[in-house]
Every structure is written in C-alpha cells, then in structure tokens.
Amino acid sequence: MKHSKWRTLLAASMVLSVAALTACGAKTDSAASGAQGKKADFPKKAVTLIVPYAAGGGTDATARALAKAAEKHLGQPITVVNKTGGGGAVGMTEGANAKSDGYTVTMATVELTTLPHMGLSPVTYENFKPVALINYDPAAITVRADSQWKTMKEFLDYAKAHPGELKLGNSGTGAIWHLGAVTLEKGAGVKFNHIPFEGAGPAITALLGGHVDAVPVSPAEVKAQVDSGKLRTLAINDSKPSEALHGVKTLKEETGLTVSVAGTWRGIAVPKDTPDDIVKVLSDAFIKGAGEAEFKDYMKKNGLGIEIKDSKAFAQHLKENNELFGKLIPELGLGKK
C-alpha cells in the first residue's frame, strides 16, 4: 500500500511539474513574441529636421512642405532648422553627430556623396542611416531676362570668346550646382568664373541683382522668377525637358552637346546608430507625407520633382551616387589635393 501511495504521489508531482514548465514556457514564448512585435515607443516629442542650406532654396522649400505633410502621420510636430555653411557640410555634419534617438533628422542632399571626394567634408553617406528619398531635380541654366543671351548657343559662344569672364553663381564650392557648372564647362570646352554662395537662394538673389551672369540650379528654384519675367532659362541639363519650365529645351536639343547629367536629390537620413524600429516609424511617416495630395500639388506648382525610395532603395541610391562622384570628381580636377 505504501509503495502504491508513493507512486501515486510521485505521478501527481510529475504532472504538476510538467504543467508548470509548460506554463512557464508559454509565458516565455509569449513574452518573446511580444518583444519581437513591440513597436518603437516613438516619438514622444517634436522632431527637428536639419536643412543644411539657407532659407529660400529648393532644399528648404522641399523640407518645409514635407515636414508639414509628414507630421500628421508622425503624430508630433516637425521643426525645420537651417544650418548653413560649407556647401552643406556644416548642417550634414551636425545631423550625423546628433543623438541616435530619431529626434534629429537631416535633409540629406546629393552633396553628401560629393563633398567627401573633394576633401571638403569628413562626413560621408556611411555616417547616416537612410530613411527615405523624396525628390530629384536637374540643372536649369538660367540668366536675367534682360541679358544679351537669348539662347544657350549664344551663351556658350560668348563664353568661348571671353574665357573666365562669365560669372556663374553656385550653391557652394563642391555643391551640386558647382559640379553642374563644371560639367557644363568641361563638356562645352569653355571657362567660367565660379562664384560660391551658401545655397541656391542667395545665388539667385545675386543673379537678380546683376552680380553674376547665370546660375545652374533646379527648375523649382527659378520658376517663380522665370514665370514673372525676371529670369530666363536657356536650357535644362537632363535627358528630358522640365515639366516646370514649359518650352525650355534640353541642353542636347539646344546645342547638340551631351554633357554629364549632374542633378540634385533630397532625402531624409538619421545618424547611423539609430535603431531600425525608429527608422521604420520615420520612413513610414515621411513616405506617407510625400504621398499627400497637398504635398504633391505643392511640389508640382513649384516645379519640384518627386522621386520616392524607401530606406533600402535609398541606401542603394546613396552607394551608387558615391561611386559615380568618386570617379567624376577626380576627372573634373576637383578631387582631394
């Protein structure tokens, strides 16, 4: 009887132990599943968007329109702050060195893949984690409406006859519109006098004031002045005409020249150590914002192109641009000394 009793107690004990272990395992699995499925507890406060150029340019305009469209999807305000200097290097360096908590994002531009190859910035695309690409725009070679040059051919013929005389304003040494001017210079066999400014906005102001002869900036950045009759765009350096500047032909159509296309793009990036779950929240909000009718209407009205890529596709875009300019810049004689 005793043995029978102990066997019964032992069996009962084993059943209870197995049940306890099963329950514990279920709790552990449930906890693990919950942890894996847990979304980032972000954001809890306003997000700062650094724009590395002056107010008034295409990058600033795109950033402000995007911030307005995206903040309702993010659930918090997005504050735009302009950090100028170094052709974009100052703002992008500050953005790369910000705390990796998602509360400081940067409007990264093509200069992120050009300035390092020129020895003008220690920050490369590898210092960032891409969030989303938003925009792409080609160069629009533009002069004052009352200038003596009515066509691109006349402009280049004058440049050939007067080497180094024509002053082309750009958005900063090593910035994309500087590269755009140099590619035109090399392709056309002419020599310009390159004048740097802290962004396209100040360069356009200088053009309006007669301090420079032309600017190679995006269609969006000159559209208002072209539409009002103050400026005239001579050609678009792209494979197709611009929708923003109706009637303006491409450089090849105007002159027969095939010049390397150097245009600008703009996207959102965060410091490289930012957690992926936070990047996902930001990416979703900014891409949804870029899809808002109000944002798309704003971009179209202001001549800004829209090109959307998610974090993964933007990462590949950054890599390809870095390789492109890593080869192009030394060929143009603008590489590190």
How is this structure best described in words?
46% of the residues are buried. 45% of the residues lie in helices and 17% in strands. β1 (47-51), α2 (58-74) and β2 form a beta-alpha-beta unit. It folds into 2 domains: 47-136 and 263-331, D-Maltodextrin-Binding Protein, domain 2; 139-255, 3-Layer(aba) Sandwich (D-Maltodextrin-Binding Protein, domain 2). The chain has 337 residues and is of the alpha/beta class. Mean pLDDT is 87; it is low at 1-38. The longest helix is centred in the N-terminal third of the chain and has 36 residues, at 2-37. The chain has helices spanning 2-37, 58-74, 89-96, 152-161, 176-188, 200-208, 219-227, 251-255, 276-290, 293-301, 311-331; strands at 47-51, 78-82, 104-109, 128-137, 139-144, 167-170, 193-196, 215-217, 231-237, 264-271. α2 (58-74) crosses α9 (276-290) and α2 (58-74) runs antiparallel to α10.
Portion in beta strands: 15-25%
Approximate helicity band: 40-55%
The arrangement of helices and strands along the chain is: HEHEHEEEHEHEHEHEHEHHH
As for the CATH topology of the largest domain, it is D-Maltodextrin-Binding Protein, domain 2
Number of helices: 11
Through-space gap between termini: 97 Å
Instruction: Classify the secondary structure makeup into a structural class.
Output: alpha/beta
At CATH level 2, the architecture of the largest domain is 3-Layer(aba) Sandwich
CATH superfamily of the largest domain: Bordetella uptake gene, domain 1
Overall structural domain count: 2
As laid out across the biggest beta sheet, the strand order is 2-1-3-10-4
Q: Which CATH class of the largest domain? A: Alpha Beta
Average pLDDT confidence is 87
Low-confidence stretches: 1-38
Dominant shape: globular
Radius of gyration: 27 Å
What's the story with the biggest beta sheet?
A: 5 strands, mixed
- Strand elements, count: 10
Protein name: ABC transporter substrate-binding protein
InterPro entries: BUG (IPR005064)
Family: Belongs to the UPF0065 (bug) family.
Pfam families: TctC
